[in-house]
Write a structure and sequence with these properties.
By secondary structure, the protein is α/β, with parallel strands linked by helices. It has one domain: YbaK protein. It is about 25% helix and about 25% strand. The chain contains 5 helices and 8 strands; from the N terminus they run H-E-H-E-E-H-E-H-E-E-E-H-E. It holds the Pfam family tRNA_edit. GO terms for molecular function: aminoacyl-tRNA deacylase activity.
């Protein structure tokens, strides 16, 4: 077990008295499916967070089930901006402070709009990154919603498996 995991994400959950469970990995997870397998959870319970940017430099974080993919056009329509693209993985860390695969909505709170696809609510508990490649965090979906106050809207590509 990892009793001393004190990433900013874990600290924020603790400071806000949000019940959570650390799910340690045997080794650094390299993909969503690998992380789900190591945590012993359904990959759809993993909250995948994708950093998007419009032409004017507006960022947004799109969160959706681990088995789905985001449709940047849907996020763009919600924000009313012209063109929205996924931020190149080489720039993600300088913008969020986290490497790709370790971003959570908690990590960008207050810095940009956060969008949750409604299909995340299919499970009572969801998994987010702990900020370390060696563990994930399980918490109640409703607690994550209450903390992050995202816009809940359909942002997934059609035809991606959501169930």
């Amino acid at each position: 077990m990892m009793p001393d995991l004190n990433t900013p994400i874990v600290v924020m959950l603790r400071d806000n008295d949000i019940a959570h469970r650390i799910l340690p990995h045997q080794r650094a997870a390299t993909t969503i499916l690998d992380a789900a397998d190591q945590r012993g959870v359904d990959p759809r319970q993993l909250v995948k967070s994708m950093l998007l940017r419009d032409m004017g430099g507006q960022y947004a974080l799109a969160c959706f089930p681990g088995t789905a993919s985001v449709d940047p056009k849907k996020v763009r329509a919600l924000l009313g901006c012209r063109r929205m693209t996924c931020v190149d993985s080489t720039h993600v860390q300088s913008i969020t402070g986290y490497s790709p695969g370790m971003i959570t909505p908690i990590a960008v709170l207050g810095a940009m709009p956060i969008f949750f696809d409604p299909s995340l609510s299919e499970f009572e508990h969801v998994n987010i990154s702990s900020g370390s490649p060696l563990a994930g965090i399980e918490l109640a979906y409703q607690d994550l919603i209450a903390l992050c106050q995202p816009v809940v809207a359909d942002i997934c590509r059609e035809g991606t498996p959501s169930s």
